[in-house]
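PIG3 family NAD(P)H quinone oxidoreductase: structure, please.
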Amino acid sequence: MKALIYNEHGGPEKLIKTEVPDPVIAADEVLVAVVATSVNRADLLQLRGRYPGYERTGSILGLDLSGTVIEVGSEVSDLEVGDPVCALVDGGGYAQLAAVPAAMCLKLPANMSFTKAAALPEVFTVAYQCFDWLAQLTAGQSVLIHAGASGVGTAMVQYAKQKGARVFVTASAPKHAQLYDLGAEVCIDYKSEEFDEIVMSHTGGKGVDVLVDFIGGPYSKQNINTIAVDGTGIMLSQMGGRYAEEYDMSPILMKRLTIVGSTLRNRSDEYKRKLTADLRTHAWPLFGEGKLFALVDTIFDWDDARSALEYMESNANVGKIVITIGD
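Here you go.
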């Protein structure tokens, strides 16, 4: 099969298309003819040598994929050849074929395109993990989502709104209109506004029940100030840096805050399969009902995958960037 790989670490220019061996499926896996994959920030980090890959997929990037099942392992009973699926994978999406654990596959609802489906698994699995497993978000609560226009951010806005929460987001001003359309109640321009002040003014000084952060160090002090009593802060990334300025940590104690650091890619197979099973039961039906959907910003052909990665680096997208896999 053909795949996009890299032979040395660096930027998007290091990606090359070449022939690699076809994957061989295990008894509990299916072989998927990949139609589309999506770009995740982890792809850029792995490419630059800042995020480890997996031995099986090696230098083939891609954490989401969609396509058609063309072979079924001997222990698989709930999928058949010809089924359209999407899946969260440990890598391998930037290729024509992928071996995928059947437990990680989600059958596509009627009329869902492969390009839309490729934009779903990673971002909505993370959203479900945060709001159902970690924060146990309930109707009437409030949530602040940093980087709200990212792929994960736009999924979180939708899912939090669907759960009946008040949704606050930070994003650059040109992206606010789309976020309001997704269900955000208050959009904050992180370039010109102080998000803690605005959140407090809209919550009567209470703060938010749940805060999701991708920025890290520079936001630490404001984050602690913004979370309500008995609230939860979830850190998913540190795009702004690892280190925080000196600040008073007493609010963590006095407000009885729960601060959670979470990842997904390096979780165990058992964890990810259980999480996918829960999402399949509790959230996946919402896509068939039209209550949740993939927000795709731009679609690139895989011959232009370098441009797709460069576009992600520019932070210009609202929603997901998708790559179609061809000949």
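Notes: The chain has a mean pLDDT of 95.
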